[in-house]
Write a structure and sequence with these properties.
Helix content: 25-40%
Bound molecules: nicotinamide-adenine-dinucleotide
Strand content: 25-35%
Largest sheet: 8 strands, mixed
Order of helices and strands: EHEHEEHEHEHEHEEEEEEEEEHH
Distance between the termini: 49 Å
Low-confidence stretches: none
CATH superfamily of the largest domain: Dihydrodipicolinate Reductase, domain 2
CATH architecture of the largest domain: 2-Layer Sandwich
Shape: globular
Length: about 325
């Protein structure tokens, strides 16, 4: 059992803590939040084994703690993450890993120097549907990648320390990196608008990778919640709609047929085939993420969403931020 001290029990921290407790690979040993009311809510939810505190520094040198989970806002998380890694504790850190690539790189270096597991909670990498799509690409079933068309929109919550892109597109950039086997874009375009507060409420990100394009819409100002990823391959196309229940993944055996010179054809024809909805066992992506973190600590392996992966994603976001300023 990996004994974890979690910092932050807000909206998302409540989900992280619930999964740490529910897993038989992890134990929630301590829960830290600055807000007494949040700790009170936690105490009502959990049994007496958890120690509650308002100051994480109490646990940095605690030999009974193997690792920390950091689920606070992005701005203050960097300094705390450094202290955790300097104290020799493994770290599960919420996305975005840091506000910029310089900070993300510093955390990654620190973890590597101290031989620690640094796991960025890019939760979609632990989603069974994303894993299935990755398998489809790697086995050749999808063909070559042509595009990713992604929207992640909802009404709020408006975050104050990061924009919609750092809050939402971060997931999609992580997914593209994961599915494509680590490809990085060579051209990034971004536009956005600040409607409420000092951060962009709505961003459109367009990226050019070697062989495929990606378009990512991130919005805190949508009347409907949408979590939709469409991926076009040369052989098949897929739509992953995370708002659906059993039919989250639809596979279209459709595409375009190249004209055959041999038969003197000159037109591109469309090819339409089966549309299938495969059965995929439901799994909790956050539980998988927490358990992967524990597995890496026990086995001394690197996380799929390790610090280096987090740095790559943050670097793309840095470039997109530059473009947001240029296009403002
Ligand atoms: N992986 C995901 O899918 C996902 C989804 C939502 C949010 N998140 C991330 O989770 C993090 C938290 O988001 P949230 O919506 O829960 O925020 P939140 O504001 O609801 O909660 C943050 C909590 O951290 C506490 N806190 C802040 N600084 C602290 C400190 N120094 N010591 C102790 N407690 C402290 C606050 O009191 C608050 O209770 C963010 O980084 C966000 O991006 C991830």
């Amino acid at each position: 059992m990996i004994r974890i001290a979690q910092i932050g029990y807000g909206y998302w921290g409540a989900n992280v803590a619930r999964n740490i407790i529910a897993s038989d690979k992890t134990q929630l040993s301590a829960l830290i939040d600055l807000r007494a009311d949040r700790l009170k809510v936690a105490e009502q939810n959990f049994n007496g084994q958890v120690r509650y505190h308002s100051d994480y520094r109490e646990f940095l040198q605690d030999p009974e703690i193997d690792a920390f989970a950091l689920a606070i806002q992005t701005a203050p998380s960097f300094e705390i993450a450094k202290q955790i890694l300097n104290a020799g504790k493994h770290l599960f850190i919420e996305k975005p890993m840091a506000a910029d690539a310089e900070k993300a790189t510093e955390l990654n270096e620190l973890a590597r120097r101290n031989n620690l597991v640094l796991h960025v909670d890019h939760i979609m990498l632990y989603h069974p549907i994303i894993r299935r799509i990755k398998q489809m690409y790697e086995s050749g079933e999808l063909g070559d990648l042509i595009y990713f068309d992604i929207s992640r929109m909802n009404l709020g919550p408006i975050r104050l320390d990061v924009n919609a892109m750092l809050d939402l597109a971060v997931h999609d950039l992580a997914v593209i990196d994961f599915i494509s086997g680590g490809k990085e874009p060579y051209h990034v375009e971004a536009i956005g608008e600040k409607h409420y507060g000092s951060q962009e409420t709505l961003t459109y990100l367009t990226l050019k990778y070697d062989g495929f394009l990606a378009h990512i819409k991130s919005s805190w100002i949508s009347p409907i919640k949408e979590r939709r990823t469409m991926i076009g391959g040369t052989k098949k196309m897929v739509i992953f709609d995370d708002m659906k229940t059993l039919d989250k993944l639809t596979i279209f055996d459709q595409g375009i047929i190249e004209p055959s010179e041999e038969y003197g054809e000159y037109e591109f024809k469309t090819r339409t085939g089966d549309i299938t909805i495969p059965y995929i066992r439901q799994e909790d992506a956050l539980r998988n993420s927490v358990e992967h973190f524990a597995h890496c600590i026990v086995n001394g392996t690197q996380s799929i969403s390790d610090g280096a992966h987090g740095v790559k994603v943050t670097r793309i976001l840095d470039e997109a931020k530059r473009k947001l300023i240029l296009n403002d």
